[in-house]
Design a protein that fits this description.
Blueprint lengths: L3 H12 L25 H10 L2 H5 L18 H18 L4 H10 L8 H11 L6 H12 L10 H8 L10 H24 L10 H7 L3 H14 L11 H19 L8 H17 L6 H12 L8 H18 L3 H12 L8
Length: 352
C-alpha cells in the first residue's frame, strides 16, 4: 500500500501553484533521515517546532510592552500565532505550501530574548560578535534544542526563519508570505495594544494613512492581507501595491516615533538594560551558575580551541560570551527577573 506521505506529496503537485515549494523537492536536512510514513517534510518540521522548549517559552516573553498589567496584551507567543494565521491565509489563497509557511511562521521568533527588542539590543552591545534574534532563531533550531542536537529542520524552513525581517530575501514564496505577515501582524496588534493601554487613540493616527489602510485594526488587517494576495496571484514573487506599501511603511515609522521609541510604555527599558547587563557580567564571571547543559556546551566549545593558537584568549572570550548569550536569550521575562533578584537583591531573613 502506498504510504500516506507519498499520496500527500502527489496531491501537492496537482493542487499547488507552480511557484509553491513542493515537499518532494525539498533541499533536505543537514543530517539525512528516513522520511516519515505520514507527514511530508515541512509538516514534520512544523511539528518539531511546535513541540520544542523554545516555542513554549515564547508565552512568557515580551512582545512590545514590558510587564504590562492586564491579560489581553500580546506576548511573543500570541504574536507568533497571529503571524502564522495571516501567513497561512495568504498561502491558502495563493495555493502555496501551507505546511512550509506555518513552520517558518512558528519558528521565526524562537531566538528572541526576554523583554523583546530591548533585551536584544543589550546583548548585541555586550557581545564582541554582536547578537541578532534572527540569527539566534536559526541557532536555536540548529544547535540549542535537544541538548545541542538541534531540530534538524529542512533548509527551506531555516531560510525562511533567517530572512523573515524587512531586509531579508527568502528563497521561497512561503518565506515571503511570513515576511509580509510578520510586519502586518506586529504593526496592527501593537496599535491595538497601544490603544488598549491608552497610549494613543485611533484618531491620532495620521488620516492620510488610515484613509488608505482603514480606520480600525480589523479594516487595516483586511486591506493589507487582501492587497498582498490580489497583487501576487500567479506571480513568482509576493508583492504589495505601491500606495498600500508606502502607507504601511509610514505607519510603521509613526509607530516607532510614538510607541516603540518615544512612547510612555518604553520607560522601563533602562531597568531591563541594567538588569540584563549585570546578569551577563555575572555569568561571565560565574559560568558554573548556568544550567548543566550550558556548562557542558561551554566546556565543549572551549575544548575545541587549540592551546597553541595565538588568538586563544580572544576565542575563549568569544566562546564564553556566545554561551552566556545563548543562556540569557533563552530566558523568559520572569526567569530573568528571578535570577537577577537571586544574585543582586538581598532576601529578607528573620532570626528566631
Amino acid at each position: 500500500m502506498e504510504m500516506i506521505r507519498e499520496q500527500l506529496e502527489e496531491l501537492e503537485k496537482v493542487t499547488l501553484s507552480k511557484y509553491a515549494a513542493l515537499s518532494c523537492n525539498s533541499q533536505g536536512r543537514d543530517r539525512e533521515e528516513e522520511p516519515d510514513d505520514i507527514r511530508p517534510c515541512y509538516e514534520r518540521d512544523r511539528d518539531r517546532i511546535l513541540h520544542c522548549k523554545a516555542f513554549r517559552r515564547l508565552k512568557h516573553k515580551t512582545q512590545v510592552f514590558i510587564s504590562p498589567e492586564g491579560d489581553h496584551y500580546r506576548t511573543r507567543l500570541t504574536h507568533t500565532l497571529e503571524v502564522s494565521q495571516i501567513a497561512r491565509t495568504m498561502a491558502k489563497a495563493l495555493r502555496l505550501n501551507e505546511d512550509l509557511t506555518e513552520a517558518i511562521a512558528l519558528g521565526h521568533d524562537l531566538g528572541h530574548t526576554p523583554f523583546g527588542h530591548t533585551g536584544e539590543r543589550v546583548l548585541d552591545s555586550l557581545c564582541i560578535e554582536g547578537f541578532s534574534h534572527v540569527e539566534q532563531s536559526v541557532r536555536v533550531v540548529e544547535v540549542l534544542e535537544k541538548d545541542g542536537q538541534g531540530l534538524n529542520l529542512t533548509k527551506e524552513v531555516r531560510d525562511g526563519i533567517l530572512n523573515h525581517r524587512t531586509s531579508g530575501h527568502p528563497r521561497t514564496l512561503e518565506g515571503q508570505a511570513v515576511r509580509f505577515s510578520d510586519k502586518i501582524a506586529y504593526i496592527n496588534h501593537d496599535i491595538d495594544d497601544s490603544i488598549r493601554a491608552g497610549l494613543i487613540t485611533e484618531d491620532e493616527i495620521p488620516h492620510e494613512l488610515t484613509d488608505v489602510l482603514g480606520h480600525s485594526v480589523h479594516d487595516r488587517l483586511n486591506v493589507l492581507i487582501h492587497d498582498v494576495i490580489l497583487n501576487s496571484v500567479d506571480k513568482p514573487n509576493l508583492e504589495m501595491s505601491a500606495p498600500v506599501e508606502d502607507a504601511m511603511k509610514k505607519l510603521r515609522s509613526w509607530m516607532f516615533s510614538h510607541v516603540y521609541i518615544g512612547g510612555e510604555a518604553k520607560t522601563e527599558e533602562c531597568k531591563v538594560d541594567r538588569m540584563m547587563t549585570l546578569l551577563f557580567r555575572y555569568y561571565m564571571e560565574h559560568p558554573e551558575a548556568m544550567t548543566h547543559e550550558y556548562i557542558a556546551m561551554l566546556e565543549s566549545n572551549l575544548s575545541r580551541i587549540d592551546s597553541e593558537d595565538p588568538e586563544k584568549e580572544r576565542k575563549t572570550k568569544i566562546a564564553h560570551q556566545r554561551t552566556v548569550c545563548d543562556y540569557i536569550a533563552g530566558m523568559t521575562d520572569d526567569y530573568c527577573t528571578a535570577k537577577f533578584k537571586e544574585y543582586f537583591v538581598p532576601i529578607g531573613w528573620q532570626k528566631y
